[in-house]
Amino acid sequence: MTSELRLFNTMTRRLEAFESIDEGHARLYTCGPTVYDYSHIGNLRTFLFEDILRRTLKLFGFQVTQVMNLTDIDDKTIRGANEAGKTLRDYTDAYIEAFFEDLETLRIEKAEHYPRATDYVDQMVDLVKSLEDKGHTYRSEGSIYYRISTFPEYGKLSGIKPEENLAGARVDSDEYEKEDARDFVLWKAAKEGEPSWDTDLGKGRPGWHIECSAMSSTLLGTTFDIHSGGVDNIFPHHENEIAQSEGASGQSFARFWLHAEHLVVEGEKMAKSKGNFFTLRDLIKKGFDPLTVRYLLLSVPYRQKLNFTFDGLHAAAQAVERLTNLRRRLDHNPTVDGAGKLSLQDVDSCGADFRAAMADDLNTARGVAALHNLCRLVNTALDEGGISQDAMLRIESVLGEINSVLDIVPTAAEGAGDGDTEIDDLVAARTAARAAKDFAQADTIRDKLTELGIVVEDTPHGPVWRRTK
Ligand code: AMP
Ligand code: ZN
Fold it and tell me: Is 299 a pocket residue for ligand 1 (Cβ < 6 Å)?
């Protein structure tokens, strides 16, 4: 099925119309977190991009099956567990739980599957055996390595070609730089102080890259639609996944490869190792609303770097406030008879702009702009005489569609409604005082509301109040 949705494929280095292998069903593998610590907002930017991707696929009519792995065994988790004096399972359990909490806080939709690497060791062993049978591996001191010279297409995703004279040189660590493009480890011989499994391959534990190859084919099949991650995954991780999966199956692995650019702080990648990171929890402790963080992280299209600043976060808070007020005004202004001040065509064109923006490789900046445009049109129409019932229905339908992807407009239940009888009563008392021409009393009540951080706006349909931060 071809859709109007176009995505930039890292493999072909161009925009392509998205097609799914199975009609109407998109199968998506998104590399997940290494659960050795809390996610920082750079990691979360990548996971939020994948949330936008899955929601956009649904917007364009696809059913989605998404798999996100949890890397609960690698160099970093083992080191962390040893330092904390815990078993690997106990240590990673806590961070998995924290990860799910962060996803929920950021309104990231749940994937269909969250496989843990340690639950798929058997499948990894089978995959390594099949690579051995096909002559892609060699053994050294109990470990098994992938001989990249046996896979002539090695480098096709990243464009990195290993130097000829490095043939036979190998690397044991899970993560390494492109200068180290060389044979990589599939199975690591058991070591003192590391968990290990007694398997047909000998006693040991899997390398990082084999995890994703084994879990993706188990849960999504040999060939699936989309594989994604952050740009740092292109090399070596995804290059190695391709060598493993295609080396073993002889078939194409993923059709589309999507990669999110990094979140940077003063030009540098936000990373644990650099110490320049914030977690979502840090920002919430500083008083920022999770919705503000979601807004900021999705406001820049995923293929552009996002420069994190507190000024940017404050601006995002203001934008969210504007959207909260939009919701409140829509809920509290009755519709008017007749044509009203907002045409159906104007509302529809905001909806069409939004779809076109998302179809254009998930251009969230343009999508957010379409939402603000709708917000501006609604505010103007309400100021100038109101909105007809037809237009109101159309606004709700367009807003519903936009929010099914962006999810940045709060609902009444989430604080955009009144729902606070103390304030409702004060506002009503002020209205009554004004009607009775008791302006001194009306002003006193207004001062009281100001103290409570409430602004009352007198619309043609009566007063509407909102909170100021
Ligand atoms: P990790 O938990 O380190 O395996 O990373 C999880 C995901 O976050 C991977 O897809 C990385 O590519 C991504 N990632 C790491 N650092 C950043 C960053 N500064 N900005 C955006 N994504 C990142
Ligand atoms: Zn992966």
Answer: no
Q: Determine, yes or no, domain membership for 433.
A: yes
Residue 34 is part of which domain span? Answer: 2-260
pTM of model > 0.85: yes
276 and 132 both lie in a single domain: no
Verify whether ligand 1 is closer than 6 Å to residue 229 (CB atom): yes
349 and 432 assigned to the same domain: no
**Is 241 among the domain residues?**
yes
Question: Is ligand 1 within 6 A of the CB of residue 262?
Answer: yes
Task: Give the whole-angstrom CA distance, residue 48 versus residue 107.
Answer: 9
- Residue 233 in contact with ligand 1 by CB distance below 6 A: yes
pLDDT per residue over 302-347, tens digit each? Answer: 999 999 999 999 999 999 999 999 998 998 888 999 999 999 999 9
Domain total of the chain: 3
Is 266 within a domain?
no
User: How far away, in angstroms, is 96 Cα from ligand 1 center?
Assistant: 16
Is 427 a member of any domain?
yes
Q: Which atom belonging to ligand 1 lies closest to the Cα atom of 231?
A: 12
109 lies in the same domain as 155: yes
Q: Are residues 29 and 125 in the same domain?
A: yes
Q: What is the pLDDT of residues 106-137, one digit of tens each?
A: 999 999 999 999 999 999 999 999 999 999 99
Claim to verify: residue 322 and residue 462 sit in the same structural domain: no
Tokens of 276: 């320049």
